[in-house]
Amino acid sequence: MEKFNKVIAKVDGLFEYVGGLFCFLLMISVVLQVLGRYFFKHDLIPGIYNIIESYLFPIVVLLALGGSYRVELWPKLDIFIEQLDPAKRRSVNLVTLSIEFLLYFLITIFTANYALKMVNEGRLMQAGATMYPLYPVLCIVPFAFFILSLEIIIKIYKAKDKQV
């Protein structure tokens, strides 16, 4: 399980790097959009709003899912659980993690089915006068949720061994 954990950590590290790159591109795009609109009275990059909305922002958010879950950045309601004795706390934690896994794995399956359907249909997005394919982002969605599901499996494994 330790090797598996290291592999997922490396994938998360790669996702964080790529997500950071896309976050930088997003910020530069917004700055160029504002400069063009207010100083030059036209868009410097035609259709950049649609590119940000359909490509950059989803990629930034989706690639951060697994890593943010790994370092426990997600809000939790621990007040109730902390007041339980250790055996009950472990049981509640395992049940909660199992429900999380089930939900995110179902999201993985449904988004994968949707992505395959949209890829087969050749789903496009218009930005300016150009049409762009949506399949790169559509394929990232189920993969990001799959990595998140794997993170939860690691946490369940640790919780079973009382490491959480």
TrEMBL record:
Residues 26-158 form the Tripartite ATP-independent periplasmic transporters DctQ component domain. The chain crosses the membrane at residues 21-40, 52-71, 92-114, 134-154. Its main location: membrane. InterPro entries: DctQ, TRAP_DctQ. It is found in: Cell inner membrane. Keywords: Cell inner membrane, Cell membrane, Membrane, Transmembrane, Transmembrane helix, Transport. Pfam families: DctQ. The keyword Transmembrane helix applies. GO terms for cellular component: plasma membrane. It is a multi-pass membrane protein. It comes from the Bacteria. PANTHER family: 2,3-DIKETO-L-GULONATE TRAP TRANSPORTER SMALL PERMEASE PROTEIN YIAM (PTHR35011). Belongs to the TRAP transporter small permease family. This is Tripartite ATP-independent periplasmic transporters DctQ component domain-containing protein. The lineage of its organism: Bacteria, Pseudomonadati, Thermodesulfobacteriota, Desulfobacteria, Desulfobacterales.
